[in-house]
Amino acid sequence: MxxxxxxxxxxxxxxxxxxxxGIAIHxxxxxxxxxxxxxxxxxxFESEVGLNLTLSVLLAVAAFIPLPILAYRLxxxxxxxxxxxxxxxxxxxxxxxxxxxxxxxxxxxPIAELTPPLPLPWLRLPGSLxxxxxxxxxxxxxxLASNKxxxxxxxxxxxxxxxxxxxPAAFVQDFQRAIEMGSLEAAPAQSLYPTFVIxxxxxxxxxxxxxxAGLFLNIGLSIWxxxxxxALPRVSLGFQPSGAPxxxxxxxxxxxxxxxxxxxxxxxxxSGLYFYRxxxxxxxxxxxxxxxxxxxxxxxxxxxxxxxxxx
Length: 311
Prior knowledge:
Distance between the termini: 69 Å
Number of domains: 2
Oligomer: single chain
Order of helices and strands: EHHHEEEEEEEEHEHHEEHH
Largest sheet: 5 strands, antiparallel
Number of helices: 8
Structural class: alpha+beta
């Protein structure tokens, strides 16, 4: 962090939030859930029709659902930062960016000074205190914080923000100096949300084509398999090295193919959004979205081969 003196021109000072505990917890949860989902999916492929198959599929899906959320929160925490100069206070947390003119900030104070107290977000983990809670005196308070013990409240006329710089005392001191020095120029306010990236990507004809192609292929695959299963008592889901079909299994296992296809589609879609944020990485986003549509098509062909291969 750059030091700030009363009689010097202030450079941009950075106040990152505490990261280490949150990174460790999020990484551990991601690894655990990924292993559970993979093992449950494998068990589903190995199980006969019945309760074990149903429970394995449900466990695989339940363990997979939080993974994109946890992965995004981990990535956001690793890049989170609060920066301050004479003109602007910038709050960055993943795809959420808030740039506030210093002159618009009404006050900064620790959360412990509030009466009545401000409740923390419902879905929170160490390193991930995100969301909006309501305070009877200040209205909505948006959390962009990682450590509840270091939370500072930054109030503007529009909203109050809860942040957690690693050194709250230094942040408050430097902010007071910035106020005393005054702004050099009028800085524009800016609010960016994760949905902004989706809206920008949707404006691209190529992105829309890949998204809709992958979505409709997955929907069609799911509908087709659901119609096939009642009339398909046994099916072979692959080939041996010799080229002969694998041992036939119950036809209901065919439902695992659209589930896997949907998993790949979601992961590729989210990963593509991550790369689309930056101009130089957008080619990677289009490659991932094209691959997700192609993967869905390959799963559809796999079902076609499975149902037409003689047993």
